[in-house]
Amino acid sequence: MTLSALDRWIGQSSKSGSFKTKDNRTPEENELIASRKELKQLN
User: Fold this and answer.
1) Residue 8's closest CA among 37, 16, 31?
2) CA gap 11, 14 in Å, rounded
3) How far apart are CA 28 and CA 26, in angstroms?
4) The pTM is what?
5) Model confidence over 4-34: pLDDT tens digits?
6) pLDDT recorded at residue 34
7) Rounded distance, CA 19 to CA 17, Å?
8) Which of 11, 23, 26, 32 could disulfide-pair with 18, CB 3.0 to 4.6 Å?
9) Where is the composition biased (Basic and acidic residues) (predicted)?
10) Nearest-angstrom CA–CA distance, 34 and 22
11) SS3 of 25, please?
C-alpha cells in the first residue's frame, strides 16, 4: 500500500466515518451516477 493511498483512506474515514467508496462520494458524483443509471435504463 502506498503512502498516498493510506492517506486518502484515513481522510475518507475521518470525513464520513466509513471506508466505503459510496459513503465518501460528493453530491455531484452521486448525481452523475444516478443520471448514468437512468440513461442506461432508457436505452
Assistant:
1) 16
2) 5
3) 5
4) 0.58
5) 988 988 887 887 787 777 887 889 999 999 9
6) 96
7) 7
8) 23
9) 20-43
10) 12
11) coil
Tell me how far apart the alpha carbons of residues 40 and 23 are, in angstroms, rounded to a whole number.
Answer: 23
Report the C-alpha gap between 39 and 23 in whole angstroms. 23
The sign of the torsion formed by the CA atoms of 35, 29, 19, 7 equals: positive
Q: What is the DSSP string of 16-38?
A: HS---GGGG--HHHHHHHHHHHH
Question: What per-residue confidence (pLDDT) applies to 15?
Answer: 77
pLDDT at position 41: 96
Amino acid identity for residue 7 in this structure: D
Question: Cα(42)–Cα(26) distance, rounded to whole angstroms?
Answer: 25
